[in-house]
Amino acid sequence: MRMRLWPILLLVVALALAGLALFKLEQGRAGLVTSQISVGLTPATVWRLPGERPGPVVVITQGFAGSQQLMLGFSQTLARAGYIAVAYDLEGHGRNSVPMSGDVTSIDGTTRLLIDELDRVIDASLTLPGAEGVALLGHSMATDIITRQAIADPRVQATVAVSMFSGAVTADAPGNLLIINGEWEDRLVTEAQRVIALTDPAAQLGETIGDPAAGTGRRAINAPNVEHVGVLYAPTTLREARDWLDTVFDRQSDAPIKERGGWIVLLIISVTALAWPLARLARPLCASAPPVRLSPAAFWAATLGPMIMTPLVLWSLEIGFLPVLVADYLAVHFGLYGVLGLAVLWRAGALQWERTDLILAVPIALFCILIFGGMLDRYVASFLAVDARIGIITAIALGAIPLMLADSYLTEGGRAPLWRVLVVRISALTSLGIATALDLEGLFFLLLILPIILLFFLLFGTLAGWVGRATHRPLAAGLGLGVFLGWALGVTFPLFAV
Predict the structure, then answer these.
(1) Pick from 405, 412, 419: which is nearest to 340 by CA?
(2) Whole-model pTM over 0.90
(3) Which of 113, 132, 208, 212 has a CA positioned 20 to 30 A from the CA of residue 327?
């Protein structure tokens, strides 16, 4: 009886912490009015104060594999300061069903198409009631897009480039440029120093040079103790962006900066933690014999074999059946890796399962997609699937399910020794590393989304261990989490039409 109290206690604590985080995050929306608009097929959200008060428009563009939700901190901060914030999903990203296209290696290819899209969003934004002037704000990949637009478009009065890299910057263009990098983005920090030195060789980070009132201002700063994603949530970033626009547009804002990063972390941890007590409470419904302990020979064959064979088998194959960069390869890689591992596990007699596993997999997948995914969609990044992504999610899930099944059985539903669990996870990542090394040009985008993959592996590994240890059902955990992994990657990868 006492053992059952712990899951209930943790469930109550996790729900309370999640509720607190939700309350704090919802405060960021308090007092603001939002409306959804479409610029052609590009979805956008307008954030502003009530009453359609006049103010400058700030068009906000996310980076590669991002979405407008990732930029919520800027939308809310600038709207609260009296700006009309317009955040949109780039082609191929978030809820934008139009895939990216063109030559990614050419300025006149994909970049030009994304600039044209930004130009259309600016046109639509300036027709909004009260729109007076326009500024651009972008992150990572989008900094090149907004920089080139600002140079070519005389309507743009200020540019805020977060984690900037662009070869278009000159000594005097674009005007009124603010560069913000995370302190831990070493290469981008060096690039920012180079850019401001174009205008003034003696300029230092944190120093404003030129005259913003005359359109010649330039400034570069570092947000302390953050990297490429954390910079989006840093109070320094939000404050500097707002203050720079206030300087350019001769305004004064005193609304407080709402902290979001810490509350998002708390929400993710608390929602994830709900899985442990829920799985423990479900144990009486599905308890059975523990999973089979693999012999050393079978274990190493099921881990090292797929790790080496999968990238070698796929190396010479042309894989291109999905309108998504490298996702088709990832689906096939996951599927082959998982099938090879499951074949060894089958030979070793480790693939035990019951009909109830299929039933239990459903609530696992629903919890992850609806509860965890719904939380992500509202506060972190787009997680709802537009029609164009349903087939992509299905294809990736068909590869992810064998991978997660093999992972779940190899780790004995989380009951294997820690060293075995680490070997299983490291082997899967190493296999992707070997594949990328063999075809760096074709799989380069895997490197860009590596942080996302690592985050997913950490999350899914934690959930698989909790569910497997509580229920003794590795098949249910692997199947449910495989569906979740397919969904998560399917809504994250940018759509791309060759």
Answers:
(1) 405
(2) yes
(3) 113
- Amino acid in the structure at residue 386: V
Question: How would DSSP label each residue in 147-163?
Answer: HHHHHH-TTEEEEEEES
* Number of neighbouring beta carbons within 10 Å of residue 42: 20
Asked if 385 contacts 490 with a C-beta cutoff of 8 angstroms, the reply is: yes
CA distances from 235 to 63, 223, 258 (A): 19, 8, 8
Contact in structure between 142 and 61 (CB atoms under 8 Å): yes
- Residue 384, both tokens: 């709802």
Q: Which of the 8 DSSP states describes residue 214?
A: G
Helix (H, G, I), strand (E, B) or coil at 26: helix
Nearest-angstrom CA–CA distance, 102 and 89: 18
Mean pLDDT of successive 10-residue segments in the chain (498 residues)? 71 94 95 96 97 94 94 97 97 93 87 97 97 97 97 98 95 96 96 94 92 95 95 97 97 89 94 83 63 86 96 89 82 96 92 78 87 93 88 92 92 85 91 90 76 74 74 80 89 84
DSSP 251: -
CA distance 116 to 89: 14
- Six-digit token string for 131: 């729109």
Helix residue ranges per DSSP H, 252-386: 261-273, 275-286, 296-314, 327-347, 355-366, 373-379
Identify the CA nearest to 470 among candidates 262, 228, 291.
Answer: 291
Rg (CA), the chain: 24
| DSSP label of 43 | E
- Output the six-digit token pair for 493: 């990868």
**Would you state the structure tokens that stand for residue 482, as one six-digit string?**
């495989």
Which residue intervals of 28-170 are DSSP H helices? 72-80, 112-125, 141-152
Are 65 and 100 in contact by the 8 Å Cβ rule? The answer is no
